[in-house]
Amino acid sequence: MEKDERSVCLGPDGAVAHITRVLNMISGRWKLPILFRLYAEPSMRTSRLKRDMPGISQKVLTQHLRELESDGLVTRTDFGELPLRVEYALTDAGRDFMPVLIAARRFSERHVIGR
């Protein structure tokens, strides 16, 4: 393999770095369920997300939502009302990312090991 071909894969701007960045964005037990719930519904309140994902704690839900927001996949809208009303939705980048996740699901379904 030529050096130029390797740089496409390796190095700070190579494919490996970009894929690693994306995998880090979705790492966390609940990030994928959050993304798929927000894909199914245009926007959701925190309480609805928590109710739809039994087993997630409020602390972890808040942490994952903040990380997804920081990574540009989710947007948080605070309506400035009392009692507090906050809704989450996918950003354009989050919606653009969903076909990638759906393709990963299809890949998994087609390449099941041990069946």
Describe this entry's structure for a reader.
- There is one protein chain.
- With 115 residues, this protein is mainly alpha-helical.
- It has a single domain, classed as Arc Repressor Mutant, subunit A (Orthogonal Bundle), CATH 1.10.10.
- The protein is 59% helix and 10% strand.
- It has six helices and three strands, in the order αααβααββα.
- One of its GO terms (molecular function) is DNA binding.
- This is Transcriptional regulator.
Describe the secondary-structure layout.
Blueprint: H1 3-9, H2 15-26, H3 31-40, E1 44-45, H4 46-52, H5 58-70, E2 74-78, E3 86-90, H6 92-110
Antiparallel strand pairs: 1-3, 2-3
Please supply descriptive tags for the structure shown above:
single chain, 115 residues, mainly alpha, 6 helices, 3 strands, globular, DNA-binding, WH_DNA-bd_sf, transcription
What topology, given as strand order, has the largest sheet? 1-3-2
CATH topology: the name is: Arc Repressor Mutant, subunit A
How many helices in DSSP terms? 6
Fraction of residues in helices? Answer: 55-70%
Could you list the spans in which at least 5 consecutive residues all have pLDDT below 50? Answer: none
Q: Write down the secondary-structure element order.
A: HHHEHHEEH
Largest sheet: 3 strands, antiparallel
Overall pLDDT metric: 91
Question: How many individual β-strands?
Answer: 3
